[in-house]
Amino acid sequence: MTDIKKGLAGVVVDTTAISKVNPETNSLLYRGYPVQDLAAKCSFEEVAHLLWHGDLPDDRQLADFEQSERAQRHLDERVKRVIDELPREAHPMDLVRTAVSFIGAEDLTAADSSPEANLAKSLTLFAKLPAIVAYIQRRRHDLPLVEPRDDLGYSANFLHMSFGEVPDLTVVKAFDVSMTLYAEHSFNASTFTARVVTSTLSDLYSAVTAAIGALKGPLHGGANEAVMHVFDEIGTADKAEAWLDEALAAKRKIMGFGHRVYKNGDSRVPTMKAALDTLVAEYDRPDLLEMYETLAGAMDARKGIKPNLDYPSGPAYHLMGFDTQVFTPLFVASRVTGWTAHVMEQLSSNALIRPLSEYVGPDQRAVPDRE
Ligand SMILES: CC(=O)SCCNC(=O)CCNC(=O)[C@H](O)C(C)(C)COP(=O)(O)OP(=O)(O)OC[C@H]1O[C@@H](n2cnc3c(N)ncnc32)[C@H](O)[C@@H]1OP(=O)(O)O
Ligand SMILES: O=C([O-])CC(=O)C(=O)O
Fold this sequence. Notes:
The protein is globular and about 70 Å long. The protein has two domains: 15-216 and 327-348, Orthogonal Bundle (Citrate Synthase, domain 1), CATH 1.10.580; 223-319, CATH 1.10.230.10. A hairpin with a 4-residue loop joins strand 1 and strand 2. Helices cover 58% and strands 3% of the residues. It is an all-alpha fold. A three-stranded antiparallel β-sheet has the order 1-2-3. The structure holds acetyl coenzyme *A and oxaloacetate ion (OAA). The site of acetyl coenzyme *A has 19 residues, from loops.
């Protein structure tokens, strides 16, 4: 029998210059820069520029970049109408996926996959996703669309469009940090999906639409939503240990824990946990922190399995005021930078991605004659 690497675990399928995930040193580099330092010192706009162009922008480049992003922030009436046609109860990930697909169908230059065209499309999606996600968040509460403000940075504007006001700087910074941390993570399932689609020479919108579908699952991005459901199911921290014992006995996967690559903790968690701590102080919610610590401690004690980025980001988005079902769309708004960087990298040295499988079905047999 062939040595099959189920789930492609441990298989290196290509090179990438975009990010380096190193489980040995528990580190993550974007284009050579430690992600913690980027989160501390740079805006998400700078990080997006870094991922797409390979380097941080100088002042002039940043000003140009910000200007192009701010000019495209509004929600197009037709995209709004498409969202409005869909049930209010539809999962926000399905709405975001449909909105991106619609934008792709409307763009008559979608098939132009030149580096310049793909860069322009990437920037368009980056600029428009906050409006889409913010509108979905508001529509769930029967609230009207909030127009973007072009005097605000990406994260402050995102929060303004979501809630109609700009929160304290601490909250804006925590949100911006989450965007930076979620932006890129080498060949994770959704990015690999984007690369598979791109490898057939399909267009960038199709790759991003497919990637959104892959991100939705609870074993990947959907876990940030699932963490909050777990917290709700447990109720209060004093019940966390008993809940965990029962869940593990029932062989349940505990959402927000474990990782395919990191086996000793996720490099991004300390930075996001620090951001969560600032939010807990800001909103005076020590109960949430107690739940976080108790469940994480119990999981470590019982299984030695550590939290991944979705574990601190779920409660952080909750404190900011987002509905639980809107957490994974926030991940989309960030990861679109990494996905599109990978689309462009894949095209720069493309090979159709088409692995082999070992057939284990019935041997060849004759189709019975039909009357
Ligand atoms: C941003 C992100 O996408 S990060 C990932 C977000 N996903 C989640 O948080 C979902 C919960 N986690 C998981 O399901 C897994 O840890 C994954 C899918 C992320 C990684 O899985 P894999 O690399 O395939 O590891 P695998 O599932 O084989 O786990 C190895 C062992 O640890 C156990 N394990 C791993 N994660 C968990 C978990 N969250 N809860 C309980 N047990 C777990 C498995 O049951 C398995 O045990 P076994 O050897 O006794 O069968
Ligand atoms: O790398 C992975 O498999 C999942 C992950 O953490 C991410 O995509 O951010």
